Amino acid sequence: MMLLRIFNRVCRREFSSVWKSVSQHASQRLDIAGIYPPIATPFTQKGNVDYQSLDKNLQKYGSMPFRGLVVQGSNGEYPYLTAEERVDVVRRVREALPSSKLVMAGSGCESTIATIHMTERMASAGADCVLIVTPCFYLGRMNSSALINHYTQYKRHLSTTSNSQTPNSTMAKTKELSKDTRNKIVDLHQAGKTESAIGKQLGVKKSTVGAIIRKWKTFKTTDNLPRSGAPRKISPRGVKMITRTQRFIASCVWELHGVPVHVLPPEVWVADSSPIPIVLYSVPANTFLDLPVDAVVQLSQHPNIVGIKDSGGDITRISLIVYKTRSQDFQVLAGSAGFLMAAYSVGAVGGVCALANVLGQQVCELAQLCTSGQWDRARDLQYRLIEPNTAVTRKFGIPALKQAMDWFGYQGGVCRSPLQPLAKVELENLRADFSLNGWL
Fold first, then answer.
1. 180: how many CB neighbours lie within 10 A of its CB?
2. Which pLDDT belongs to residue 23?
3. Where is the Sleeping Beauty transposase HTH domain (predicted)?
4. Which of 309, 324, 402, 424 does the annotation list as catalytic?
5. Res 258: pLDDT
6. How confident is the model at residue 340 (pLDDT cuts 50, 70, 90)?
7. How far apart are CA 326 and CA 282, in angstroms?
8. DSSP letters for 375-395
9. Nearest residue to 17 via CA among 194, 212, 308, 269
10. Can you tell me whether residue 350 is helix, strand or coil?
11. CB within 8 Å of 139: residues ≥ 6 apart
12. 3-state helix, strand, coil in the chain (%, to 5)
């Protein structure tokens, strides 16, 4: 009898959850348009994460007209951080940044299961969405089918012990608050206060404040937040029975909305169950792999995959992605300031630009000129950003970015080994790229 009660509860909850998420595909997707600096991770001379320097950078970034920050992207040296460090940096950024700005956290790992776990942890740390890079170690086998499966694969982790909690337990705590308190939280969030500040003012846990804000961002309401239910012991047979029912319900709902069921891998749950929206990340300079256009088009149909950061610089490809996903509420971000104007001209809605760590106001100005149709002025500014951008990306990389940050009053500092500082001649060339364009 207990198994049947749990089974019925899960059926009702899953049908409601899947129906709501898919039904609101067009109107409730997260808007990611705007400029994001992929922030650097400062380190001490001993190689530890320098949180004091990070806080100083965040104070400056918080006052700029960025849509948000990308945390633990390629420029954050994420491959050199431990899993705990990656999550801690995201948590620190979310606490320090005004809640009106998005935190897009890099959660990509080589395996699908590791990516799922990291995505869940980033969501718990306060990320608004995740940036998931293409896996590339087994490059020869990363075809469209493998990549589509990677990005849509999500298996529901059901409790098998009496002490565990379901993924919505944080959300459920918001039920304990009055409607007036929830609305006050949203009002303070819109006024630009951080989650920590809101929590202290109202005497509410920061995690609860974050849960209410994320629910409001997604559904524009603070009402009817989901219940987690009491933890239960479920037998392996019961888990299998419930999982099969979840897949069946999901396939029925997707079929009703005209979405092909073949995007649902046979043994997994879909990305719809990911705690927060997903942004695809194609960066062939690092992975030697372009996420194929046909895969992007298919993935764009998923309601929880909201866009792509394309760092390849191929404007023809970016144009084709914009064109082929035009019927979806799917947004394209340029992955570099070097081709930002060109990307805007073919329909991109923003950019994740390493140069914005140094020339943030100027990159935002370029975006504003493009969106307002002032193409002549935009072209003149774009010309002056190309060489500095190339210097801190393809030419000299992260050591150059951190050095330029030091020059412009930010906390860049050292890189984590095995990355090495610039040689003297490289340093001179870097300074010339900025000076000759009027920035130093």
1. 8
2. 42
3. 171-222
4. 309
5. 53
6. very high
7. 19
8. HHHHHHHHHHHHHHHHIIIII
9. 269
10. strand
11. 287, 288, 289
12. 55, 10, 35
Pairing of strands 350-352, 331-334: parallel
pLDDT, tens only, 212-249: 887 777 666 666 444 333 334 445 455 445 555 655 55
Long-range contacts of 139-145, Cβ-Cβ distance < 8 Å, separation of 24 or more? 139/287, 139/288, 139/289, 142/289, 143/292, 144/292, 144/294, 144/295, 144/298
Structure tokens at 389: 């951008």
Cβ(170)–Cβ(207) below 8 Å: yes
Distance (Å, whole) CA 233 – CA 160: 5
Per-residue model confidence (pLDDT) at position 435:
97
Counting Cβ atoms within 10 Å, is residue 422 exposed (0-12), middle (13-18) or buried (19+)? middle
Give 80's pLDDT tier (boundaries 50, 70, 90): very high
309 is an active site residue: yes
The 10 Å Cβ neighbour count of residue 137 is: 9
- Whole-angstrom distance, CA of residue 18 vs CA of residue 299: 17
350 is written with which tokens? Answer: 């923003």
pLDDT over threshold 70, residue 166: no
Contact assessment for residue 412 and residue 405, using Cβ atoms and an 8 Å cutoff: yes
Of 167, 112, 103, nearest in space to 142 by CA: 112
Q: How many whole angstroms from its chain centre is CA 306?
A: 10
